[in-house]
Amino acid sequence: MASLRITLRAGERIFVNGAVLKVDRKTTLEFLNDVTFLLESHVMQAEDATTPLRQLYFIVQMMLIEPGSAEAARELFGTTHAAMIGTYRNRDIIEGLLEIKELVGRERNFEALKGLRTLIPIEDGVIQGQGEARAPVVPHTPELRLAAGGMR
User: Fold this and answer.
1) Do 34 and 69 share a structural domain?
2) Angle, vertex CA 68, rays to CA 1 and CA 5, nearest 5
3) Count of CB atoms within 10 A of residue 44's CB?
4) 3-state DSSP call for residue 82?
C-alpha cells in the first residue's frame, strides 16, 4: 500500500477513524495504512442538509464520522435511498443513486460522498425547475442529529 500525504492549514480539522483532529499550524500528515478520514471542507453540518441528496450525504457522512452510530445510519440510508429512487425522474440522479447504493453496500463511504457531491448540483437544478422530480420527504432521527453535534 502506498502512503497518503495530506497537508492541513493552521486551525483546520480532519476526521480520522471517528476522531476529530485539529492542527495549530500548517501540518502534513502521512497515512501509512488504510484509514477512514474526511476533510473538514467536506463535512456537512446538520442544518445544511436541506435537500434530499444533502440529507443522504449527511447520513453517509455519519457512517464515517461516528463509527459507533454507523449501523443506525446504514439503516436510515436504506430507507431514505429507497424513497429517493422512487421519487426522482432525472436519469443522472437515478443512475448516481444506484451507484451510491452499491458503494455504501461495499462500505466505500468516502467514494459514496464524492459521488453525492457530484449529484447535488444536478439536484439544485431540478429544484430550480431545470429537471423533473417530486419533492421527497426524508426522515430525521434524533440519534443522527445528536451525533452531528460533535462535528463543530
Assistant:
1) no
2) 30
3) 22
4) helix
Q: Are residues 82 and 34 in the same domain?
A: no
Domain of 27 in residue numbering reads as 4-42
Q: Give the pTM.
A: 0.79
Residues 59 and 100 in one domain: yes
Task: Count the alpha carbons within 13 Å of 2 in the hemisphere toward its beta carbon.
Answer: 2
What tens-digit pLDDT sequence spans the chain (152 residues)? Answer: 678 899 999 999 998 888 899 999 999 999 998 888 888 888 999 999 999 999 999 999 999 888 888 999 999 999 999 999 988 889 999 999 999 999 999 999 999 999 999 999 999 998 888 655 444 444 444 444 434 444 44
Q: 89: number of CA atoms within 13 Å, CB side?
A: 9
Residue 122 and residue 66 share a domain: yes
Three cell numbers written together for 143:
440519534
**Together in a domain, 120 and 143:** yes
Residues 76 and 116 in one domain: yes
Q: How many domains does the chain have?
A: 2
Side chain identity, residue 140: H
Do 24 and 81 lie in one domain? The reply is no
Distance of alpha carbon 120 from alpha carbon 93, whole angstroms: 9
- The CA distance from 24 to 21, in Å, is 10
